[in-house]
Amino acid sequence: MTSSWTSSGSSPNAAEGQRATIRPRLRLSTGVGADALTEPTCSPTPTGAQVVFRAEQLAVSYGAKRAVEDINIDIHRNEATAFIGPSGCGKTTVLRCLNRMNDSIPTFALDGKLLYHGHDLYGPHVNRVEVRRRIGMVFQKPNPFPKSIFDNVAWAPRNLGMKDDLGGRVERALRAAALWDEVKDRLRASALGLSGGQQQRLCIARAVAIEPDVLLLDEPASALDPIATASIEDLIHRLKDRYTIVIVTHNMQQAMRVADRTAFFSLDEHRVGTLIEYDRTETIFSRPADPRTRDYITGRFG
Amino acid sequence: MPVRLLSARVSSLASFPQLSNRRQLERLNRLDARAGSALRWLALFGGAAVFLALMAIVYQVISGASLALSRYGISFVGRRQWSPAVGRFGALALLYGTLVTSVCSVAVATVLGVAIGLFLSLMAPRRVAAVVGPLVEMLAAIPSVVLGLVGIYLIAPFVLNNIEAPLHSVLGFIPLFGPPGTVGNSDFTASLVLVIMVVPIIAALSRDVFLTVPSELREGAEALGATRLEVIRGAVLSTTHSGVIAACMLGFGRAIGEAIAVTQVIGNITQISHNLFAPGDTLGSLIANQFLTPVSALHTASMFYLALVLLVLELATMLLARYVSRHFGSRR
Amino acid sequence: MNVHASPDPAHALTPSGNLRRRMVTSRAVVAVTVLAAALAVSVLFIIVYFVAQRGASQISVAFFIRQLPLVSYGKVTGGIGPAIAGSVEIVLLSTLIALPAGVLTAIYLTEFAGARVAAPIQTALELLAGLPTIIAGIFVAGLLVAHYGQSAYAAGLALSIVQVPLIARTSIESIRRVPASLREAADALGIARWRTITGVVLPTAAGGIVTATILAIARAAGETAPVLFTSSAFGTPYQLNPNQQVPNLPVEIYNLANSLNPTAVSDAWGAAFLLICLILLANIGARLWLRRSERKRGL
Ligand SMILES: Nc1ncnc2c1ncn2[C@@H]1O[C@H](COP(=O)(O)OP(=O)(O)O)[C@@H](O)[C@H]1O
Ligand SMILES: [Mg+2]
């Protein structure tokens, strides 16, 4: 179904879940034929060469209210990382810090350090628009523009001046979001006529159309029925080879199904959100180190 | 807390009919029924009065114009000459003056008003918007006679001394910016005064429209790496353009209907001149200027006819604005 | 070849690609909106300053009490006492008509009318709100003045046409904002409809209705067009008989402004200053009142 991003949309009838055919897209600046997975590109940090985000003692307050604190986490390239935990523990807050979506909240204040590929995300010369161009986001509630399906996807590429082969770009994005077959005959129809699940996949297509580096997903399936949820999860599986994905979910099965690593957030003794445990997903769900994590995943909490 | 206060009010009402005596209770029920229907009729009377007032206005304006209507028929609208002294009347020059001043002022006021609406709804921090918004609205509260006074003694001289000649020398190739006048009373000055009246209307209405755009839509655009301008164009204006058009039409309705401030600064000469710097007249300004000193019954009737033309124009504008905002309204 | 590949992660988070250019246009537009707002506010201040500069020096007790010199308008400035008194009278008359009419209309539209009856009344209300005020004046001139001559009653009626839509529309809004739960609570207790309206709905909406009335009074006090043909007395002594024309502030300003006598013009500025102060204070007061009453209701 999804053809390789680099070969322009060839095999429309390929079976779903053909993950092996997807290769991360190539950065032309680094030369042809190189595979991004094997390339030592992304991180200047000494530890693992693949760290996209690094939070050090990250803490967020809204006015006098401290929302989260003590967050230390490394998010790795081309992996899906899940944030789980009871509601109100700051998952959305942390996620929205990653592309500076919180900046528009007047009371928002951030402490600690947040690095993106080694750059200080909240540094003095950081341009927010540039940050969001590189780090896309899909929201809990589908929010397509009241425009046609085509224009929804083409809107951001047009802004960015990606004018050549716009039709091909839109098609590839819709294929990547597993929506192409459903909408290819009505690209000019209003996006608001789509079902909730289709709208959410359109929002994902809209985000991947400008080829960001990272995709942030805030409970993307929470408003959807099980079938639409399954197709979104499927999609995340296929996208994570190409993008770094961070997904917030309160559904543990979902985390188990899609995520390589899982971060468990909860409220600490002062009722402030914090990161309790972060590890490979199998480890979190089979041998959690912290009793609070164990209580949560066995359903004794939340 | 306040809700509890109100519930107390509700229950105090409820305790009122708790009477043991059956006769008393019946009397109370009868009273309730009677008072209820009285209130209903009273309210209907109020509502009907509003509707009838509008009908009466239309009727009165038509009947006041009957002499001119039977004399000229519809051709009145196409007649150019308005000379009370010789008893010739026509609406064309006044219609022209009304449309020129209104179109010019609304064109400028749309740019300013929509910009202010954007500022108040999307740019300004809440505290700033909470101060600037009411200040802009207060501009609309200045009485037109005061604005006209300022127009006579501040704006007209300013236009005469500082604007007419430079505009003529730079944009003189456009017929609108012809040779400067001698007093400053002109279509141009009237338009400027109208801009001051219309801007707050368009600003307030368009701000309210912009505030209805869900923040999710704006965030969706921001998350795609859009600049502020692109967010405005893609997520705000594209979903609200019908509301903005309706706001501009309401501003236009305000501009065509203003009589007093315009009559104070327009020069009151009934003529059609392509030159904005020449004096002119509008439907409203002529009525304000001549209604108290008619020279004949036909003169009075012709002014009612002008009022009729203005009324038709106004009602058409308002109904169109309503239609636009309802039928092309948000496709959400 | 695609020049718009994913941005190089090693690149600092400063504008890449066409972003620098886009930021420039975007910031320019933001600057325009700020300038437009600043322009509007400065125009307000310039107008108020200009009126104050010329009018404030007139303000004195004598100016508020005395009348304009009758015949020769020499160097003596007059006073606007009769005009103030007359304005109070006609605005009072107008509000006496418009307040009940507006509130009753609002009650009818929100509490009683079915959709089919409500629609034409609602439309009429919207059209009246946009009615050119000079047409309100010429309407009453044809209806009353042509038969009975000018009077304070005629002026009051003309002004009430301006006031009714202002009062009705705001009242409708504040009645609609009365929480449905209150009404349901009253219904559940079996309270008669009229008791709910007069005992619960109207008191709860009172803040909005009072605000609307203050704003409508401020508006009527400054309207010239409706009173110009209905009560155009100018320069007369105190005159409060409602069957006759009464002097009033807007008409006084309108006539003094057109006079060529500088002393008369300075009286116009004095009257304009008074009017503008009253109207702006009423606007500020009404806003504060509304904010207070909404806070009290927990809105
Ligand atoms: N805009 C805001 N202003 C004030 N407090 C907020 C805001 N957004 C979130 N919070 C608070 O921050 C905490 C974390 O919220 P959130 O990140 O939405 O949690 P989650 O996504 O895990 O449910 C909550 O206590 C919430 O009330
Ligand atoms: Mg959340």
Protein architecture, described:
The complex is a heterotrimer of chains A (302), B (332) and C (299). The longest helix of chain A is centred in the last third of the chain and has 14 residues, at 226-239. In chain A, 48% of the residues are buried. Chain A has helices spanning 91-98, 128-134, 149-159, 166-176, 180-183, 196-208, 226-239, 252-258, 281-286, 291-297, and strands at residues 51-62, 65-76, 80-84, 108-116, 119-120, 135-138, 214-218, 244-248, 261-267, 273-280. In chain A, the strands form two sheets. A six-stranded mixed β-sheet of chain A has the order 6-7-8-3-9-10, with helices on both faces. A four-stranded antiparallel β-sheet of chain A has the order 2-1-4-5, covered by helices on one side. Chain A has a single domain (8-297), classed as Rossmann fold. Chain A is of the alpha/beta class. Helices cover 29% and strands 23% of the residues of chain A. With 332 residues, chain B is mainly alpha-helical. Chain B has twelve helices and no strands. Chain B has helices spanning 2-15, 22-64, 66-72, 92-123, 126-141, 144-171, 187-211, 215-222, 228-257, 260-265, 283-290, 297-327. Chain B starts with a helix and ends in a 5-residue tail after the last helix. Chain C is built from eleven helices and no strands. Chain C has helices at 19-55, 61-65, 81-112, 115-129, 133-148, 152-176, 180-188, 193-222, 225-228, 249-258, 262-296. In chain C, helix 1 (19-55) crosses helix 11 (262-296). The longest helix of chain C is centred in the N-terminal third of the chain and has 37 residues, at 19-55. Chains B and C meet through helix 1, helix 2, helix 4, helix 5 and helix 6 of B and helix 1, helix 3, helix 4, helix 5 and helix 6 of C. Bound molecules: adenosine-5'-diphosphate and magnesium ion (MG). Residues 91-92 of chain A line the site of magnesium ion (MG).
